[in-house]
Amino acid sequence: MPEIKRKNPTQARAQLTVGIILDAAAQILQSEGEAHFNTNRVAEKAGFSIGTLYQYFPNKNSIIEAIAERERIAIEMSIQRALLEGWPHTIEEFLRIIIRQIINAFGRRQKLRRFIIIQMIRLDLFMPVLKEVDRISEIVSVLLQKNQSDDYLPLSKTRLFILTRSIMGVIRAAIIENNTALGAQEFEDELVMLALNYLTPTKKPGY
Q: How crowded is residue 170: how many other Cβ atoms within 10 Å of its Cβ?
């Protein structure tokens, strides 16, 4: 049987159809759970025939991938908007904006987020999110280089990797474990402190 390729939604009507399908899939995952998530249920919820759905999504994994990509773009745009609306004057403000936006993005509709993250890991789809985190961390690195004081350490690629994966790892764990701390101010504060402590020079013994 030949492989069914996903149709590229180039026309406005096709884009609208894809959006309705993804919205329906997200609603099912959030309100009904993974057990009820399949292409037939998504098509029914979206109000389309299964044939119409298959024109764009050959299976439920392709729907998950599209939802994950949409979420990634939404996170990227939310961070960009937040930075444009109030460009930070300090490294701490910059880190707090980024961390807050990522927490807010992943913290909403936790059942859906938890499912998406688990599936992204299973399907090896988490890399685009990490690439965006890497892009943002490079901006932090440039700001640190422009900092004329000795308040913060320069960020090598290794240090950037450790810092970004530590922050994303904590947020990801909180979602997967359904930890209620995710929505607390303390959670954000601790992640900001973690980043600042990592970026702050540590005095050697005897100094």
A: 19
CA 75 to chain centre: 6
| The two three-digit tokens of residue 177, written as one number | 């474990």
Q: Structure pTM?
A: 0.69
pLDDT tens column, 68-105: 888 778 777 877 787 777 666 677 888 888 888 888 87
If residue 29 lies in a helix (H) or strand (E), which one and from where to where?
helix 12-31
The structure tokens listed for 114 are: 């938890």
d(CA 99, CA 168): 9
Query: pLDDT tens, 37-55?
Result: 999 999 999 999 999 999 9
Alpha-carbon gap, residue 27 to 21, rounded angstroms: 10
70: Cα separation from own chain's centroid: 10
Exposure on the CB side of residue 22, measured as CA atoms within 13 A: 19
Give which of 145, 123, 120 is closest to 199, Cα–Cα.
Answer: 145
Residue 31: CB partners within 8 Å, gap ≥ 6?
none
Q: Which residues of 85-113 are buried (b: 16+ CB within 10 A; e: fewer)?
A: eeeeeebeebbbbbbbbbbebbbeebebb
Structure tokens at 198: 């990592």
* DSSP string over 57-87: -SSHHHHHHHHHHHHHHHHHHHHHHHHHHT-
The residues near 97 (Cβ < 8 Å, ≥ 6 apart) are 79, 82, 83, 86, 88
